[in-house]
Specification:
There is one protein chain. Helix 1 crosses helix 5, helix 6 crosses helix 7 and helix 8 packs antiparallel against helix 9. The strands form 6 sheets. The chain has a 6-stranded mixed beta sheet. Strands 8-9-12-20 form a 4-stranded mixed beta sheet, with helices on one face. The protein is elongated, with a radius of gyration of 23 Å. With about 350 residues, the protein is of the alpha+beta class. A hairpin with a 3-residue loop joins strand 16 and strand 17.
Amino acid sequence: MNQGRIARVIEGMRKEGLSQLLVSSLQSVYYLTGLWVPQGERLLVLKLDVDGSMTLFVNRMFALSGQQGTAQLVEFDDVDDSVRVLCDHLKPGKLGVDKTWPSHFLIRLMQLRPDVMPVLGSAPVDEARMLKDADEIVAMRASSHMNDEVTRYLRTSITAGESEMAVARRYLDRAIELGAAGTSFSALICFGANAAEPHHGTDLSVLKEGDAVIMDVGLDLGHAMSDMTRTVFFGSATDEQKRVYDTVLRANMAAKKVVRPGIPMKDVDRAARAVIEDAGYGPQFLHRTGHGIGIEVHEPPDASAISEAIARPGMIFSIEPGIYLPGKFGVRIEDLVLVTEDGVEVLNELDRDLMIIR
C-alpha cells in the first residue's frame, strides 16, 4: 500500500463529502495497492472509507491472500453473487463510485441496496493521480527515455515499399528487446495522406518517395506509459511540407515555453494554437494540445481551450500540436513535459530537427 497516495485520496474524499468510495479501475487499484489484477469481467473493487480503512473485494481465483498489505481482503467465488457480497459491507447514504465501474454491477447494487445513493466519485483518485510522486517521476523519465531510443532506431530503419504495419511491429519488437512490457497504445504509423488523419489506424499502406511519416508511439515500462510523436519525410520534402513542419515545431516550442506552476492549462493550448493560427493553418489543427499521462496513456488534465485545470508541480502531460491537410500530408510533434517547482522539464530528448530519411 502507498500511504501517501491513500492520504491524498482520503483528503479528496473529505473535499467531496464522501465517507465511502469504490475504486474499480485496474490502474487506480494498482496506484493505491501495488496490485495489478486484470480482472476481466469479474468484480474487483477497492472500498475506501474516510477514516482510512480499506477493503479489497476480489475473486478467490486471483490468489491475493497475503498480498493485499493493509487492506482487509474479502474473497468470493464464481458461483457467488459478488455484488451482494460487496453490499454487505456498505453503509447507507452517499457512495462514491468511479467512472469505470461497469453499469451491470452498479445497477445490481442499486437494486440490492436502495438505501445507498451512488454518486460519481472519480475526482479524489483522479486528482491524486494527476500529481506524480517521486517514484512515478523516475519511472516516467525512464519510460520516455526508452521511447526516445526506440523511436531513434525506428526512424532510421524505415525503407521504401514497407508497410505501416511492418514499422509498427518493428517498434513493438524493439521496445520488448529493451525491456518494455509492450506498447502503451497501438503504434500510430502514418504514411503520406494517411498522416492527415490525426488518429489514422495503422494499415498496409506502403511507403513511397515524398511521404510524410508520422510515428506516434509509446511503451509500457513497469506500468509507466510513454507517448511521443515525431514526423519525418521520406526521400524529399516540398517547400509546403517544410513550412508546415516549421510551424508545428514552433507551436510545440511555444507551448513548452509557457509551462510553469500556476498557469492555466488552457494557456498552454492557446500558446500552441496561436502560432498555427498566425501561420494560416488554424482550421487544420484538429485536436487539443495535450493530455495527462501516467499509469494510463490518457489521464487528466487536458491542455485544451476549455480546460479548467491549473498546472501544478508533479503534473505530466503531452504537448502535441499538429497540422493536417486532407489528401496531402500531416505533421505532429509531441513531447511529454513535467511541471517542476519553478518551470518545466521536457521528458523527451530525441531531437526535433526536420529530417529527410532515405
